[in-house]
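Continuing the batch. This is chain 6 of the set; chains 1 through 5 are on the previous pages. Same settings as before, nothing changed between runs. Recording input and output for traceability.
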Amino acid sequence: MAHEPEPQPADEFDAGAVRTWSALALAALGRSRTDIDAINVYPVADADTGTNLYLTAESADRALTEAFAAAAPGVTDGTAPDTAATSLPEAVRAYAHGALIGARGNSGTILAQLLRGIADVLAAGPAGHAPGPLLAQALTRAAEEAYQAVAHPVEGTMLTVAAAAARAARATPGTAADVARAAYDGARAALAETPGQLAALGKAGVVDAGGCGLVAVLGALWQALSGQEPEPEPVQGPAVPVERVPEPCAQEEGGPGYEVVYLLEAAEEAVDRLRAALDGLGDSLVVVGGDGLWNVHVHVDDPGAAVEAGVEAGRPHRIRITHFGDERRRASAPRAQRAVVAVVHGEGLAALCGEAGATTVPARAGEPPAVADLLDAIRRAHAREVVLLPGGAELRAAAGAAAEQARADGVRVAVIPTRSAVQGLAALAVHDPEAGFDEDVVAMTAAAGATRYGELAVAERQSFTSAGICQAGDVLGLIDGDVAVIGAGLPETAEAVLERMLGSGGELVTLVLGPEAPETLAARLEAYVQQRHLAVDTVTYSGGRHSAPLLIGVE
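Output for chain 6:
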């Protein structure tokens, strides 16, 4: 159960207040997400600003929750967080870092930099709590850093709203709650003026979508400090509430065709050169972050060149490229009745699942997909009903969160708790889009549950396992997630694992070979099964790059 946010004393903006603010901001963005999406007309009318802000806030909230859990490991349900165990600097840094690594879209990237600006000031202040003047200083730094992060700032946007909030905060003496209320009121007033500042907004008759989200976040800050709930409508005016959804339009006429986003590990000097390079490639350039980690967002016609510029600057990862035309066609296309979304490790498995009709989400060791990645895949599937195969026990929580968010969009989602890719393959094999949804889910769940799974991995260091002590370089044979065999080589260990798995019966063995497996391994294991278990069939697939050395399924 999630903790219930409680307001803080009016002049105590401490670690507990940050946690309360995060929970309230996430809830506020969740309530207004659809309405904000509907008024998204600038810089690209792709109806995703509310969703991007929500997903960014969700990443920030998750990082903050993890920071509190690490400081108070005895608390696991979040009902009674030991706020004394986490200092204000630790809380604001965790909050800003979570937003940085999970920032989505133009608006989410700017929100991440706003939170970083706040953290830069509060983390350098008292460890206990921040009084009103320090909060005003933090909001001012946030607006300044956000303007600096955008290559070509435009008024009438989220930046304008942030600057107005900062001005109002600086002009208000008093407690932290007083400053937060002034910032909220200043942001609301500035938001109401945005249609007159930006032609695209005035023409559509809407306020700025990113600014609308920022008003919700600032309202949550005031509520966290005062205990008073903001008005249901953040701004009253002709543009709010929204009465129409803009026509699906991928980009302004003549604008770039792709959105490129990635995290970048690089030195600040290299990022300065990167900004200049990307500015010459496209528009909507926002680079946020610092201390060696950056989030890069740009709209370009040549996504390859944008990624190459990142490679020259440092190490880009979590690269995401979206073609606006694809988004437009998807938005206007009729929805399919049912689709399957599968998380897969390995390019070969991705191709295999794709051929079976699934929308795939790539996963790599140490970089599991986030909730936002799963939600993206559900939306790309563009179906009324979706069956989600997470492919690992560690992804169940993320899959559940993505499914819950998709259900809020009107999509019927079922999560089948697959713990391995071979269980996902078994579920896909019996998938019947013509059957009723519940019937299909039951059949796929039964097929996955009836599939025992094994995996071979190479030990990286000495460790205690359920099969004894292993040394670095040993081959580990896992059955249903537990180490069952410790061997010296892949072939011998694979045979030992197969023998144990087939000891309790089976009709079909599925082998998925990774790039590290010897070329002769498939033939050797097929012969081994045929000689010892005549009634058992064997199928073999290539897992491709990023897959385990060997996956085994027994049905």
